């Protein structure tokens, strides 16, 4: 009897040690992240250090690239097979393309089923294509309206704008009173960031990218949105340099107190309120991006990102352990200043809400109306075409209707 | 002593290592690219069937008005930037060929822009052109030339020229060095004789110096033109092709088709078109060089 028990225990031990070695064999993971918006490099390094501490057999080599290099890096590394990455950060606009080309592993079976309810639907959209999941959502992000409280009160404005038209009126008051030369600043360089601003405004005006698979961005609200953008430049209310600004430029201009309104990602809230980074710390207001009278009360673009495992990875189990660590509720709540958690429950947790009640309040409203960019395989091409035509209009080289008509024609040519 | 192998075999034997390397790093990829350009190949991690589709990729590329526009822009970039580099390079070489104190130091310093990596150069110039705190705006403002800060890389009418300026600054030293080396072979007695005969500096330059250095200059013009026509890095860093595609060159389309849209077949056909135009440019210059030599 006793002998049997000993045998059983030792067998259990043997099994445990076998399981231990398969699950956490000595491995080095290669992981690809971006150094732009959302979690900072320091944040990601601290999260990784915690993971390595609890998994001493796994080392993680982190690589940070600008957002614009992320797509090319993932694609180029796919040719490297097991020499490529084990974990990659990917944008909400890529899963369709990556799934169709087999760049990412289908991880649907690895995700516990109770997660589906606990995580926001907008976050899931980031990793889903054709009913399968190609990673875990990690950064739940959208563009918010930031405003300079001091400038608004100087101008005698008590509340931030609820609609885009109201934002124009308030900007005009601020400009006329000589409080700031250009009240609005945007990320309107010929880039994906500009498409995010356009998507936000367009969705609030009832515009759509495609209807029944046919381009619809040259009709209705989608055209009005572009006319709105152009009009704000023509009226001298938007900073003309917006047309070559990135997100970081927007943050710099707003933090220097050179704009009353700015649209930007979550990360700007903490940084614009940091006296080391900003001249207007403590004067920063945040609200959901405005809506349009009679159509919407707020607007938002789905700018989330997820973590996935490239199909060539030789260590998918360890990679998944790392992803699970980064995306778990505890980790996300600990690092919630630059990026908010994907977990619904987190939004009432003091660690998240403390010191950023405004952000959390705005997030609750914005996350509910997050609008997706087209979830199609050829998104990159569609976006490039729209970027060109929208930029032409913003530069005064074309009018909104003919530019978007031209874009629609070009989109029809995509193979 | 009699050789074991004939002169002809020996020639090929000696050439063999170089030819092998050339074949591996240049010919094989070229043939592969050529084959891809006639196929519907795409970048994918899944097993795919690649089929031959004839000229379809080429037709697609050449019926794209945006790509045709980009070819025009690339030619503009090539001619203006190489032209300016040659004029500036030769002028600087003439100065450095004079006798003056500190000449050696100046000759060493002038190579600096060329020694800086393109990426660093591009980032530096982007900062100089910055619409909010750039040095160029500050300088022109203090000189009273502009009334308010300009958005140099955001203005579609001037962006390309601003990129060209950055490219010229980086590359003119190479032309200057080649020209300087060539200038040292110009016979002084010929120049002195011309001076005695009463020829002024312009006349001496165009009638004696320039014809004497035109050979080496043409070589550097060909090299720079081919390089300039496939320009990518400086533009990728400075403008990414914007504003409104005004700085988007032909190589950008190769990159876009291949790495953004993942169509390796179509991307290869864009690459072959860019290579073909470069070859036409080279032939043009060689013809010009031949005519030049004939008239001498």
Short description:
The complex is a heterodimer of chains A (415) and B (296). With 415 residues, chain A is an alpha/beta fold.
Care to describe what's here?
The complex is a heterodimer of chains A (415) and B (296). Chain A has 415 residues and is α/β, with parallel strands linked by helices. Chain A folds into two domains: 26-141 and 303-371, 3-Layer(aba) Sandwich (D-Maltodextrin-Binding Protein, domain 2), CATH 3.40.190.10; 144-301 and 378-412, D-Maltodextrin-Binding Protein, domain 2. In chain A, 45% of the residues lie in helices and 14% in strands. Chain A contains 18 helices and 15 strands. A five-stranded mixed β-sheet of chain A has the order 2-1-3-14-6. Chain A has a four-stranded mixed β-sheet with strand order 8-11-7-12. In chain A, strands 4-5 form a two-stranded antiparallel sheet. The radius of gyration of chain A is 23 Å and the shape is globular. Chain B is mainly alpha-helical. Chain B has one domain (57-295): MetI-like fold, CATH 1.10.3720. In chain B, 72% of the residues lie in helices and 0% in strands. Chain B contains 13 helices and no strands. Chain B starts with 6 loop residues before the first helix and ends with a helix. The model of chain B has no long low-confidence stretch (mean pLDDT 90). Classes of the chains: A alpha/beta (415), B mainly alpha (296). The interface between A and B is medium-sized, with 35 and 28 residues.
Report the principal-axis shape of chain A: globular
Whole-number average pLDDT of chain B?
90
Q: Radius of gyration of chain A in whole Å, from Cα?
A: 23 Å
CATH C-level name of the largest domain in chain A:
Alpha Beta
What structural class results from the helix and strand content of chain A? alpha/beta
Number of strands of chain B: 0
Going by helix content, strand content and strand pairing, the class of chain B is mainly alpha
And the CATH topology of the largest domain in chain A? D-Maltodextrin-Binding Protein, domain 2
Percent of sequence in beta strands of chain A: 5-15%
Q: What proportion strand of chain B?
A: under 5%
- Work out the oligomeric state of the chains in this entry: heterodimer
The greatest interface here is: A-B, 35 and 28 residues
How many helices of chain B in DSSP terms? 13
Q: Write down the overall mean pLDDT of chain A.
A: 91
Query: In the residues of chain B, how many domains can be counted?
Result: 1
- What is the name of the CATH architecture of chain B? Orthogonal Bundle
Strand order of the largest sheet of chain A: 2-1-3-14-6
How would you spell out the order of helices and strands of chain B? HHHHHHHHHHHHH
